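To illustrate the input format used throughout this study, we show a single complete record. The first block contains the structure-token representation of the backbone; no residue identities are included at this stage. The design step must infer an amino acid for every position from geometry alone.
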């Protein structure tokens, strides 16, 4: 059984449709394709790193697109005539597309290829306007409430 059924949860929650859609799509997509392999690492409270194994791809072969809440990484190898006759081909030469759903306010900071690994650093930066604020409650003293205006003498 590859299908997760969130129907009972959908009936009793409001506003979580996007979360359930993400979970269902992720389960469906990850079951069929695991190329290229990748790691997701938490490097701090608001810092993350995605590492993809992209051996054989040059920086010009890789396209990284960051949209709102979505990171798309595509690899397309240029068609090259083989220099020799291969007896065995074990290194994948096919193109790929990997999609990562990002949380709100997660931005790509850096991307680089080193030793056949594509490393993408991400950081969550919540704008000041969106951060929680402490609200001070002002109260009048009971003495102020009990004082009534004095009648003026004529």
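Output of the design step:
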């Amino acid at each position: 059984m590859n299908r997760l059924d969130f129907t009972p949860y959908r009936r009793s929650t409001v506003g979580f449709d996007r979360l359930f859609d993400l979970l269902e799509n992720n389960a469906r997509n990850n079951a069929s394709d695991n190329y290229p392999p990748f790691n997701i690492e938490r490097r701090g409270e608001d810092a993350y790193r995605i590492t993809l194994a992209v051996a054989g791809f040059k920086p010009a072969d890789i396209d990284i697109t960051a949209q709102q809440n979505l990171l798309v990484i595509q690899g397309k190898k240029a068609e090259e005539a083989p220099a020799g006759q291969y007896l065995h081909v074990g290194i994948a030469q096919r193109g790929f597309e990997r999609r990562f759903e990002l949380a709100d306010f997660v931005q790509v900071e850096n991307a680089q290829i080193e030793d056949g690994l594509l490393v993408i650093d991400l950081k969550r930066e919540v704008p000041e306007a969106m951060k929680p604020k402490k609200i001070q409650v002002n109260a009048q003293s009971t003495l102020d409430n009990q004082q009534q205006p004095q009648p003026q003498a004529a």
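Structural context for interpreting the output: The first helix runs from residue 7 to 12. The helical segments are 7-12, 17-32, 142-146.
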